[in-house]
Amino acid sequence: APQVYSTRCSSSTVPRITTHYTVYPRDKDPRWEGVEMERFADEADVVIVGGGPAGLSAAIRLKQLANQHEKELRVCVVEKASQIGAHTLSGACLEATALNELIPDWKERGAPLNTPVTEDKFSILTEKYRIPVPILPGLPMNNHGNYLVRLGNFVRWLGEQAEELGVELYPGYAAAEVLFHEDGSVKGIATNDVGIGKDGSPKDVFERGMELHAKVTLFGEGCHGHLAKQLYKQFNLRENCEPQTYAIGLKELWVIDEKKWRPGRAEHSVGWPLNRNTYGGSFLYHLNEGEPLVALGFVVGLDYTNPYLSPFREFQRWKHHPSLMSTLEGGNRIAYGARALNEGGFQSIPKLTFPGGMLIGCSPHTHTHNKSAFFTFLLLFFFVSCLQITIFTQKQLYILLCSHFKVLSHFIHLGPLPLKPAKDCAPIEYPKPDGKISFDLLSSVALSGTNHEHDQPPHLTLKDDSVPVAQNLAVYDGPEQRFCPAGVYEYVPLETGDGMRLQINAQNCVHCKTCDIKDPSQNINWVVPEGSGGPAYNGM
């Protein structure tokens, strides 16, 4: 059962929901008097936050350069998942140019790129029909030469390559705080404290996190990273770019009837079940992984305006389209997950550098994770080692960036649109799941392997505990109940008196960050829970 944290209250008071120290500082809490708060500090040359494709690619290239020039370079990667790759979720269709440059002998090293794309299909869906659309050479949906991958497996392999080169990997350690020098430059990060009760008090096993100081700190947290959000404000990194826009991607893995399996086929669609005012689309990838496996997913732009829309239930409804049913019938769903993703395009990329650090990968919004890291290592190695290496001229850099971001040019949004009040929108009637093709939310979350230490403050923090009921429920009919793909948010009756309260089932959280983005009141601030908490994806 999900762990629930709330406080009993009368109808005349606001229930206490948030107990996290980022909202209620410990120096003002008498329960923390006399608790030892000193942190152990360690030094590295480069610290990388996030063990995803960008973070690991940057770490690998830095160590390659250091070894090539016989330089000692200590590179540390901290990753909040219990294992490298366990929080990674993507489609994924991988374009291998950057990998060829980073690890030319990746095939000999056993990289899990087992499925070259052999067939592309693109279509517009109506409720009952599929309208094929021709794919012309040069269009983003032309994937010949690319690979269909389980990105979590690929990231795990990248981690093995990094360790072979001497990169220090620290899975299970969440970067909770950015550290600064007196001059305002980034000094490094601090990992999360452990042993705090769900009421915000120190437990007997309380331990301070540790500090990791570095000459340069790279932030590769993925879309809408909670430290990157602070850095945007601290260094005004979004001053000269367009606003970021987002979507949520939901994904499942299925084992299907072998007669329906077409390894190497990549299918994409737009249209039904979304209306013409809602941005989104789908993918269906036939993987060659030794069994008849398909990865399927549905993306919904988070600029939708109807608060009754549920991305999860749109995903479940989409699977009942005749063109999908014919593939899935008789199959078995084995995995589920979700993640927010950037959609803003080239014009939404912020300034990437600041004193003492840099943003890489999906954190600032570059879908070309490995390539963004590829530029990063060149600049950093020059800075850290003071070696004379070739730096791209501005013209070369511009040409390379344009060529690698061309796939993003069709994702041009004008910025997020606010939700409309519930009174101005029609409720959406979704069909009940049949338990064969479509499923309910909690049985889906169970397939993600998600788990958190139950006795800790909810990491879904609220700036103001009164806002959910007074604003989100009153005006928008509680949209967090629908946009969360993991059943974290519920409005339930007060234990005494009339009215409702928000219940946060933090243990269900799959770390997708959608709530932090889509909350119409911008009252939710996602912060890291204790390290190792979250989903346990196996090759998503």
From TrEMBL:
Residues passing through the membrane, by range: 372-392
Sequence ranges assigned to domain 4Fe-4S ferredoxin-type in this UniProt record: 500-529
GO molecular function terms attached to this record: 4 iron, 4 sulfur cluster binding; electron-transferring-flavoprotein dehydrogenase activity; metal ion binding
Gene this chain is encoded by: LOC107758565
Summary of the function given for this chain in its UniProt record: Accepts electrons from ETF and reduces ubiquinone.
Lineage: Eukaryota, Metazoa, Chordata, Craniata, Vertebrata
InterPro entries xref list: 4Fe4S_Fe-S-bd (IPR017896), ETF-QO (IPR040156), ETF-QO/FixC_UQ-bd (IPR049398), ETF-QO/FixX_C (IPR007859), FAD/NAD-bd_sf (IPR036188), FAD/NAD-binding_dom (IPR023753)
Cofactor details (free text): Binds 1 [4Fe-4S] cluster.
Highest taxon above the source species: Eukaryota
UniProt-recorded name of the protein: Electron transfer flavoprotein-ubiquinone oxidoreductase
